[in-house]
Amino acid sequence: MLLSIDTSAGTSVAVVDRDRGILAEYAEADTRRHAEVIGDLILACMSEADLAVTALSGVAIGMGPGPFTGLRVGIAAGQAFAFGAGKPVVPVISHDAIAFGHYAAGGTGPLLVVTDARRREVYWSTYRGADAAGLPERVDLPGLIRPDDLPSAVADYEHYVRLDADMVSAGAAGMLAETLFLHKRPFAGAEPLYLRSPDVTLPAGPKRVS
Amino acid sequence: MNMSAPLVSAPLVLGIETSCDETGIGIVRGNTLLANVIASSMDEHARYGGVVPEIAARAHLEALTPALTAALAEAGVALHELDAIAVTSGPGLSGALMVGVGAAKALSVALDKPLYAVNHLVGHVGADVLSESGPIDYPTVALLVSGGHTSLLLVRDLVSDVELLGETIDDAAGEAFDKVARLLGLPYPGGPEIDRAAIDGDPTAIRFPRGLSLPKDLEKHRYDFSFSGLKTSVARWVEQYRDTGAELPVADVAASFREAVVDVLLTKAIAACHAHGVPRLLLGGGVVANARVRQLAEVRCAANGIQLRIPPLSLCTDNGAMIAALGAQLIAAGHAASHLSFGADSTLPVTQIQA
Ligand SMILES: [Zn+2]
Asked: DSSP string of B96-164?
């Protein structure tokens, strides 16, 4: 069983079990309240699943792509929970969770996943389909792009089912993690997928004031 | 979750601080410091001449778990032994604060320990309960000066009654040091550089203005500070001097600038002590590292019959131990834990000691 957290869009928290599926899932769609709601959502999931922390085998975390301030709240919370529980962290790519949910619900074939990156840009990932284990086959790492440029950036754009998601289900992220583990596939890297450099401007030399 | 205060007189508290560019994890037992681990991203900000919020927030995420591990090892305690967790909920950089808040909430649920969301500025005052000077006598005036804040507080009681007397209306004092250092071609952070450059300088060589010190300013801003006019005045002086082609007397400029900052800080702090009949002054914040601040504070306090407290520097710069210490004080006073729904509040007022 895993606690699962994804804050790459809204805030989603779940407890999942490989055999029994999603045992509890709570979400807050507001993309400005990650820090406020994260604790209550974790508590609600643990209570509803009626689990002792010791019963968990790890903490799944959606590593993005996502706007950095919110994304980081979930990663920080997931890492701290895992640290407190003495359990491993299981990172997954948030877009993969969307694709996993899509194929698990019966979707087939090429899939284009799109999520909001703010500042008039979107994050995108393409998938060929799902493999025999139900795991999505991503074509490349997620990217960042202006929405208007997407059709020309994706080869054979019209062959893809396009899925614009405004929430990443932590339940799907958790089940993805369980399935990856079951089939001995690699998890995501430990680095958050910010896909943007910090906004910084190098200081110009001092300006004259007189 | 059980939210009532743990019934122990010297609670074991872990504090998490991420309001600016230091990731601080501290562990205290009551007023006893057990661990104070600080990971700073200062070097990453140096080339930008100031703290870049997003760089600081990214660094917090990377530093948090290693700092937790190091603090527990340093204190020689296990997580399950903790009585409570405390975290800075504000004021500070919101993206940076959120890393600590998110982590603290999750840790609190994972361990089923009460969580205290506390005020960073009051934490700076609370830091001194951990020093060897013994308990803090109240009321006390507190002058908190760093790269992020310049605040004058009247603390009647650490956990229940803190009043903001004044604060900077533009730059923090530490920022002014950074900006003037750059003007003089000195690296970031500016405080220690100015201090070094000022060693052989004459603090009376140039009379730079003392912000908000004229009678008309004092009516409205008796205990407020302003350093942007001072910075401009130094810039103008430096330009005009350079225009003459002569070599800039860096030591005199640094010493005179520093004197202007320190003079106005202490003049207002001592005035607050007199006006409120409080013969005690406590200094906090990273600028306390400045030799001239400490020196002039000692001289002026002695001359005015004011008892001066300066915590050790490791407790003056941003750290998790001061947050843990404030949490422990709240518990000892019987305060209930914070509700899990608090947020990161970049402008949390100093009157709100616990969120
Ligand atoms: Zn501070």
From this structure: HHHHHHHHHHHHHHHHT--EEEEEHHHHHHHGGGGSTT-SPPSSEEEEEESSS-EEEEEEEETTTEEEE
